[in-house]
# Entry
Amino acid sequence: MATGRDDIGATRTGADRGRVVVFGSLNVDSTSYVDDFPEPGETILSRDYRVALGGKGANQAVAAHVAGAPVDFVACIGDDASGAFAYDTLERLGLPVGAIRRIPDAPTGVAQITVAASGENTIIVTGGANLALTPELVHRDRALVAAAAVVLTQGELAAATIEQVAAVASESGTRFVLNLAPPARVSAATLAVADPIVLNEHEARAVGIGTDAPGDATLDDWRELAASAAGGIARSIVVTLGAAGATAADATGSWAVHAPRVTAVDTTGAGDGFTGTLAAFLAEGRPLPEALRIAVTAGALAVQARGTVDSYAARAEVLAAAAAES
# Structure
């Protein structure tokens, strides 16, 4: 693997960067932009409306691709207009679509999103064809996992499917990155091989990290909590804290990275931008603290634009901004 330098890290062409395989959900996002969230029973008017590619799997696959990693995305879509839209969007973005399965008589997954003027959002997800991404399909794609540097999945899949991804990655000697969002009920053995497990503070508490931490726990507090769990709950741990930044820990140490100060326009998909970027830079051999710093910058850039995949900044822009923050 190449070891030259570019901006704040190794200079690599697309051919010699590590491959990322993403097993994940693929949805079509229907987003309404409002001044404030409605109260129960209240009808309000939106200021704008957009339809776009979404799903944590798709978002993270696109983020890893934009960050410069070769990506294989394993997902399921319906044989419907939404599925055709999602498929065409992936092709437009330059992602390989050979591992996308069309599922007859199943609707493509959908996320109904509301974004307030504050930039905060609410999301309701209907799985649809995503539920057809079973452990059997993961087994069929084990050759993709064996050829990758990193395999990445998320909590939007069934627990049995997540566990199969972890098992195949472990058998293949491929680094397994798990974004347990939402916090699916997976086995302790699955958590134990995650390197890292990526969580926000609520998800961290759900797996037993920081269960007694106060609501105002600082970034450094979470760094210490991650350090106490690294090597136990998971091989390494990343905890994201939104505008505050993120922290990480493994057997060699622990780190906290403050996020750049920005004005948030839309936080939808920013966490996925962070996670996909983190996976991409881990796949090309960056150490965890360096990949963490780059991913925090990618997430901060993403909240400054509307939408999900269209808000992800290009590799060169992220690296330049990360270098400026260091």
About this structure: The chain has a mean pLDDT of 91. Residues 35 and 233 are 41 Å apart (CA to CA). The first strand starts at residue 20 and ends at 23. The radius of gyration is 18 Å.
